[in-house]
């Protein structure tokens, strides 16, 4: 079957190419020196056939606490659209639905993910006339985004973003948005979901991982929700979940494409999510240091940093410097940490912690920003990071090859979008 499909693709390529050059159908003249097999499954290029472009990557994680967003929820500050537009947005959510038995064991509630995607699309693709500091444009006119020398979008262009991946597992969601013109250079998208929750397999905890190629560089993004709990020793459960995710996650690969199958086999890897690591200090001490904004003293007792330093998890991973308040746990619609209000009987104590984190692995990435956003929607604050990423781009070896790899001829050899809902 695969051989027949490949032969069909070759015939299509021959037919289109012959028409372009006004050759009779079936002529062999064009075939001399043209390797159509390489056009369908290009061989790995040599270093002297590669250029490097830089792209701007926005990554964010947000535990939304099972809160259904209103139709008018403003995401502009979170997605930073008033100041910048990025080439790629990778958005990870946790608890997109409440983690009750109905949602863990029952069918997916697709409308909730659809609403979040609608809000993101509306924010990223809003009219250029509302952008602060942008060049003036005619009312209602939408300009096309063109790549510039370093690969990033034209500073004066209107936004035009497409969702290429949006997948969920119970409450964990990862969604990937790219500039419209970049979608023609995205290949081999794939998703892997790992449940680490109840009975060690259900999806109330675990990960949704996505991978794809941009030009000649592979990316993998792992959105996690690890084991909760503030008792001594609970950090070991989180370590176990993380190792289980890294070990069990697998993507399609094998002959003839030889695609990487494991997370760390990819060129650029980013892990984001509610990792749930706490601060190993008495609650009263933690609260006092938070009030004094003594971040360095708190970070010395941060469980994630301690586990990484001691070699128990995330070996060779990197994280940017933390210079923001702990992101958990708040009263909803409030700036007050949970448990700080007097007279509330029966409420569980939750010491503040940096539960929400973004890590990366590999070369070719430089973090430009690592901060939190002040949305009061849930008991967590979203965390976001901006990276400058190097991407290998194949030089066009001839005009025919360039045409078939351009947006004017998008060969549909595989599904280019993976979207739930």
Automatic annotation (TrEMBL):
The keyword Hydrolase applies. Keywords: Hydrolase. Residues 53-395 form the Inositol polyphosphate-related phosphatase domain. Residues 132-156 are annotated as: Disordered. GO terms for biological process: phosphatidylinositol dephosphorylation. GO terms for molecular function: inositol-polyphosphate 5-phosphatase activity; phosphatidylinositol-3,4,5-trisphosphate 5-phosphatase activity; phosphatidylinositol-4,5-bisphosphate 5-phosphatase activity. InterPro entries: Endo/exonu/phosph_ase_sf, IP5P_plant, IPPc. It comes from the Eukaryota. Pfam families: Exo_endo_phos2. Belongs to the inositol polyphosphate 5-phosphatase family. This is Inositol polyphosphate-related phosphatase domain-containing protein. The lineage of its organism: Eukaryota, Viridiplantae, Streptophyta, Embryophyta, Tracheophyta.
């Amino acid at each position: 079957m695969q051989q027949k499909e490949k032969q069909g693709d070759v015939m299509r390529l021959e037919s289109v190419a012959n028409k372009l050059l006004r050759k009779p159908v079936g002529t062999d003249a064009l075939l001399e020196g043209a390797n159509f097999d390489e056009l369908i499954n290009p061989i790995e290029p040599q270093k002297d056939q590669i250029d490097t472009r830089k792209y701007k990557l926005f990554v964010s994680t947000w535990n939304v606490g099972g809160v259904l967003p209103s139709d008018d929820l403003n995401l502009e500050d979170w997605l930073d659209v008033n100041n910048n537009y990025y080439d790629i947005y990778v958005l990870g959510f946790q608890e997109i639905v409440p983690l009750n038995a109905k949602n863990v064991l029952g069918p997916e509630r697709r409308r909730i993910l659809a609403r979040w995607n609608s809000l993101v699309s509306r924010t990223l693709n809003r009219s250029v006339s509302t952008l602060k500091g942008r060049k003036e444009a005619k009312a209602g006119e939408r300009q096309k985004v063109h790549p510039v020398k370093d690969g990033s979008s034209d500073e004066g262009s209107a936004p035009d973003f497409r969702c290429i991946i949006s997948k969920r597992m119970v409450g964990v969601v990862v969604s990937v948005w790219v500039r419209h013109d970049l979608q023609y250079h995205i290949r081999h998208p794939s998703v892997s979901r790992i449940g680490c929750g109840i009975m060690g397999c259900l999806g109330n905890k675990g990960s949704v991982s996505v991978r794809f190629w941009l030009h000649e560089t592979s990316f993998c993004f792992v959105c996690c929700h690890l084991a909760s709990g503030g008792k001594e020793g609970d950090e070991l459960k989180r370590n176990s979940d993380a190792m289980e995710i890294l070990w069990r996650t697998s993507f399609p690969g094998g002959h003839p494409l030889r695609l990487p199958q494991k997370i760390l086999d990819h060129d650029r890897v980013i892990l984001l999510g509610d990792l749930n690591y706490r601060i190993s200090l008495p609650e009263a001490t933690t609260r006092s240091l938070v009030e004094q904004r003594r971040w360095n003293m708190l970070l010395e007792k941060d469980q994630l940093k301690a586990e990484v330093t001691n070699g128990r998890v995330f070996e060779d991973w990197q994280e940017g410097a933390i210079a923001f308040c702990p992101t958990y746990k708040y009263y909803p619609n409030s700036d007050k940490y949970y448990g700080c209000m007097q007279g509330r009987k029966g409420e569980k104590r939750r010491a503040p912690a940096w539960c929400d984190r973004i890590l990366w692995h590999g070369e070719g990435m430089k973090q430009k920003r690592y901060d939190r956003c002040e949305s009061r929607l849930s008991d967590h604050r979203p965390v976001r990071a901006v990276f400058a990423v190097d991407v290998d781009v194949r030089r066009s070896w001839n005009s025919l090859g360039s045409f078939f790899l351009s947006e004017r001829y998008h060969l549909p050899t595989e599904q280019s979008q993976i979207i739930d809902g």
